[in-house]
Amino acid sequence: MMGCDMRQATSLLSINTTRPGLLEITDQISAWAHAQNFRAGLLTIFCRHTSVSLLIQENAAREVRDDLETFFARIAPEDPVAYSHDDEGADDMPAHLRAALTQVQLTIPLIEGQLVLGTWQGIYLFEHRRRPHARTLALHLIGE
Amino acid sequence: MMGCDMRQATSLLSINTTRPGLLEITDQISAWAHAQNFRAGLLTIFCRHTSVSLLIQENAAREVRDDLETFFARIAPEDPVAYSHDDEGADDMPAHLRAALTQVQLTIPLIEGQLVLGTWQGIYLFEHRRRPHARTLALHLIGE
Amino acid sequence: MMGCDMRQATSLLSINTTRPGLLEITDQISAWAHAQNFRAGLLTIFCRHTSVSLLIQENAAREVRDDLETFFARIAPEDPVAYSHDDEGADDMPAHLRAALTQVQLTIPLIEGQLVLGTWQGIYLFEHRRRPHARTLALHLIGE
């Protein structure tokens, strides 16, 4: 009986990025999820690109994001000789590597009508390319 | 008709960590999942923190965990000068970096009443802070 | 009422790997998902091993995969002295590290009967061991 109220909601969310780095999207994601009026459910955010990624990280101190960006630039650096794939620009292959090290998808439970994000957790789109890009996330919510 | 048995179960699981490193939580997670009596379903474990993370890894040889801990300490090291975010202690920013490189969330199918973990797979909470912490995981199971 | 059509499908997919590196499995995964005839849903792919992993990456330029493989070999290298776990071969511990840095599980929404993969996204099994291996993925689809 309970299950007879089970349903799904889906959407595509467009986000324009203007520079590389972490762009907080918690508000857009939460607003969409809460507008679907689920009491309990499972939210999935899927990034339809390979040179931008998703990350949940601390949304308090700005320095945390600076350090995260610096770290990923250091372990997956731009390098004029390291990569065989360089025809889309010097920032393209590092973008794929940084995306591989982070997330293409995040799944977050919703309990008592709220996403279970912790107090200091924000959802970020992690843009790895230098030029502005129009990005699309697929959102999926299942529950009741 | 089939879908009319579909339902959800949710819970918050508290885990106290006493030291940095990999803490196996397979038994607690499995026990909770199996107690919900689902024949088939999808289990999601969500970590509500940004300085501890989740990892599925080999649970046979202890040396694998030692090497994993050493590896993450090497690629995302404590460093008195590297980070601009240092007011929460020298182990805080490396904790965020190690969490970014691993998982904030794991989703595991349940088939024929069992989580589909492989023979050698264990679920670990990867504590990145030195001091003891009270950690909370959100658990969500959907299925029938 | 809507929810009364909600259902699940599950399967185990066997894949034989013959060499280390990225093996595209998009076609096998899509074929299975589409054969289940869901209008909307959530597909989860779970890798039941700790020395092979999952990755979504660009499936256009072959050089991207070469560079990805080279990158992971560089940051988690084979090393005759670095690891305490070496009794399963020199490629075993790097395999665990590379698996820890990538994904054990991917969850992809299905909207209007199609997986929401972006134009350039392919699903890859990332084999980290040198010898041929028989690998198993668990597939789970929930929706209607």
Spell out the key features of this protein.
homotrimer, 144 residues, alpha+beta, five-stranded antiparallel β-sheet, 3 helices, 24% helix, elongated
Provide an overview of this structure:
The structure is a homotrimer of 144-residue chains. By secondary structure, chain A is of the alpha+beta class. Helix content of chain A is 24%, strand content 39%. Chain A is elongated. The first copy, chain A, has a five-stranded antiparallel sheet with strand order 1-8-3-5-6, with helices on one face. In chain A, strands 2-7-4 form a three-stranded antiparallel sheet, sandwiched between helices. The N and C termini of chain A lie close together (12 Å). Chain A has three helices and eight strands; from the N terminus they run E-E-H-E-E-H-H-E-E-E-E. Chains B and C meet through strand 4, helix 2 and strand 5 of B and strand 1, strand 3, helix 3 and strand 8 of C.
